[in-house]
Write a structure and sequence with these properties.
The chain is mostly helical. It has four helices and no strands.
Length: 158
C-alpha cells in the first residue's frame, strides 16, 4: 500500500478557515475570469492578491492617505466652527435690525414720516384717478355746453 505524504513548508499554514463573501453576480463572474486567466482557483486568487505584503510605495500612499484623512477631519471641524460663528453673527445682526425697527416705531418723528409717506401715496393715487377721469369729464362738460347752446337757440326760435 502506498502512502502520500503532504509536505507543509513554513510559509504555508493549513487552510482550515472558511470565508464566505457576498458580491454581485458581475463581480463574481469577474473573479472567476481572473482566476481562470491566472490558472488558479478563485480562493487562491484572493489569497495571492490579498495575502501579499504591501510594497514600499503602497505603504507610503497608505500613510499619506491616513494623514490626509486626519487633515480633512480637522478642516471639516474648523469649517463647522466658522459656520457656527458666522451664523451667530448673522443672528445678532438680525436681532439688532429688528430692535432698531421696533425703536423706530416708537419715535414720534419716524411715525410722522410714515404718515407723510402714506398721505403722499393717497394724493398720488387720487391724482392718477383724476387724470384717468379727466377725458370723461371734459366730454361730459362739452355735451352739457352743446346742449345748453342748442336749448338757447331753440328757445330763441320758439
Amino acid at each position: 500500500m502506498s502512502h502520500v505524504y503532504a509536505h507543509v513548508y513554513p510559509g504555508d499554514a493549513m487552510k482550515a478557515a472558511r470565508l464566505q463573501v457576498l458580491t454581485t453576480p458581475v463581480f463574481r463572474d469577474w473573479l472567476r475570469k481572473e482566476a481562470r486567466n491566472a490558472g488558479v482557483s478563485v480562493a487562491e486568487l484572493v489569497r495571492r492578491r490579498c495575502g501579499r505584503t504591501p510594497t514600499g510605495g503602497e505603504q507610503a500612499v497608505a500613510k499619506l492617505a491616513s494623514h490626509l484623512h486626519k487633515e480633512v477631519r480637522k478642516a471639516q471641524a474648523s469649517l463647522r466652527s466658522g459656520l457656527a460663528e458666522a451664523t451667530a453673527v448673522l443672528e445678532d445682526l438680525r436681532a439688532e435690525r429688528k430692535r432698531r425697527r421696533c425703536d423706530e416705531c416708537f419715535d414720534p418723528g419716524h411715525r410722522r414720516h410714515q404718515e407723510a409717506l402714506k398721505l403722499t401715496d393717497v394724493v398720488r393715487r387720487a391724482g392718477e384717478t383724476l387724470k384717468d377721469l379727466a377725458p370723461e369729464i371734459r366730454d361730459h362738460d362739452r355735451r352739457i355746453a352743446l346742449g345748453g347752446t342748442m336749448g338757447n337757440r331753440y328757445h330763441a326760435v320758439a
